[in-house]
Amino acid sequence: MNHFAQLDGLVPDRLRPRTRKIVLDDYVLEVDIGFHDFEVGRPQRLILTVEVWVDEASFPEEDDASRAWNYDFLRTEIAALASAKRYNLQETLVRAIYDRVAARLGVTALRVRSRKPDIYPDCAGVGVDLASF
Asked: Is the separation of the CB atoms in 71 and 51 below 8 Å?
């Protein structure tokens, strides 16, 4: 017996979900990134957060993994892009990640953030934020 079915129709329209978001938060990678002589060839920590808003069809109502948006895709694609080459700029890597995720079926909005946490001793990090809004 499905006890959750008893709740159908009880959620007021004003409280129905308007957006659906998948988040990969503070993914830490070692990336060969930076244009200064002391950075080239010396991988450094890069922290990435990816927020993906998806359409209703990409956010299943049933507890069925085959219908879910794949979190593993985010991690594996980001890792592949980050290790595929060296980057001079965070902007370039963030753009590559953004373009890869934005091309996925069901994406309605997107934000990709990066930060280097080890650059300045008096800052949590320096970074880039690219969003569709």
From this structure: no
Instruction: Domain count for the chain, please give it.
Output: 1
HSE (side-chain half, CA atoms, 13 Å) at 75: 8
Residues 6+ apart with CB under 8 A from 52: 21, 22, 23, 69, 74, 101, 104, 107, 109, 110
CATH code of residue 34: 3.30.1130.10
- For residue 37, tell me if it sits in a domain: yes
6 inside domain: no
If you average pLDDT over residues 72-76, what whole number do you get? 92
Rounded to two decimals, what is the model's pTM?
0.87
